[in-house]
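Weekly modeling sync, notes
Attendees: S.R. (lead), two postdocs, one rotation student

Agenda item 3: backlog of single-chain predictions. S.R. asked that every request posted to the team notebook include the full sequence so nobody has to chase files. The rotation student volunteered to paste the first one in as an example of the format we agreed on. Action items at the bottom.

Example entry:
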Amino acid sequence: MIHSAFRQGLTAVAAIGALAASAGAFAFTPPSFPRIAGIQISAPFDYNDPTFQAEVAKQSITVLNDWPGMNPGGESMQTVVQQIKAINPNALVFLYTDSDEQFTDPTNSAWATLINEINSMKWWLYSDKSLTSAVSSFYGNGGMTINNSTNTPKNAQGQDAIDYMVNYFVANEYTPNTNIDGFFMDNVFTTPRVAGDWYRNGTVLQPSSSQAQAAIQSGYERWFSLARQLMPGKYQIGNIATWYSPGATAVPAGFKGMTDGGEIEGLIGQTWSTETWDGWQGMENQYFQIMAVVNAPKLVIFDQQDNPTNYQSMRYGLTSCLMNDGYYNFTSNTSTYSGVYWFDEFNANLGQPVGATPTGAWQNGVWRRDFTNGIALVNPKGNGTQTVQLGGTFVKIKGTQAPSVNNGQTVTSVTLQDRDGIILMRQSPLQQPKAPTGVSIGN
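Predicted structure, as returned to the notebook:
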């Protein structure tokens, strides 16, 4: 479950001059492993800082915040993205969007145009037929819930709420910043978080209602479909952490193939994390299930929210991510989604995977995945301390953050604590298969 949702803040009033849209398809070369992502959507918004840009450019996927008129340090977001891509042309940069909550007062808000349209069209989610009792957002922050289904009345341009919002974000976040690689849509829920009249017929439906679930799903399906039409050649990802429930096929049929990836929020490190309440195998089931239903190039972000000085826990999360092809994001559990964290293991070049993703433990309950330049081992929670024989000679990486582990030693076996993992390098890389290149979408 999502407990710490992404938020956009902010109260600056300004207009953005539109630039010519770039509608051509682009190519992305999936990087070697480990694949690193970053979600930097919280203050401080020092996106113009060259040091920050250089740190972000080391990531393969980055999600940044944006709002109408945003000019960090007097620099446009278009320039920010250009400067990141000048350092790393293969970096993917996404801008944050959200369709499920807003505040009703447009005064001094960067979102005034959007708020005024929602107010005038009564596009809030209501709990009464007279449309006077809007439903508070589940965030509990004073905002209200938007009826982001396809069941709201249409404005003079023939747009319902979700159509209007897609067009609004395209005009205000994409058109001025055409060098971005797509949108990140927060909270792509399968089930509403609040009860309300999702069909505007006077009937309040509880979140458990299949009709309510169908309503909210229709809105997200429409968002991604229309966003693709308006942003040809761009990827569309989202916060897709809720696409899972233990022992069930949780992904709705309409959501399969709907996105090109997305973030699985807080898999490790919080009281509400999947690994906390459903264990390591449940977490991996969620991860593997979501990887299976998104489009290539499967830009799935494995998110860990933890103590940045707990290097064992970080290794555990990173190596759990390495059991499949996702992108690993680490953020502090006290200052979520702010700043770039970089660990010794991120500098290791494992190359490309050898063979299929693992389907079971390799030795003594420890999981292993082989790469052309090394291996990744993870010891799941509850498996106890385990010593494993590697079947060959490998080299520990050399680092400064955990020198007792990352000491550059040559080893033929390793001992892993419970909830631990390690990256080991080969003495001689295996024959490197050619990595896929030119992965494209659009026409």
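Discussion: group reviewed the output briefly. Confidence is low (pLDDT under 50) at residues 1-25.
Action items: rotation student to repeat for the remaining queue; S.R. to check formatting next week.
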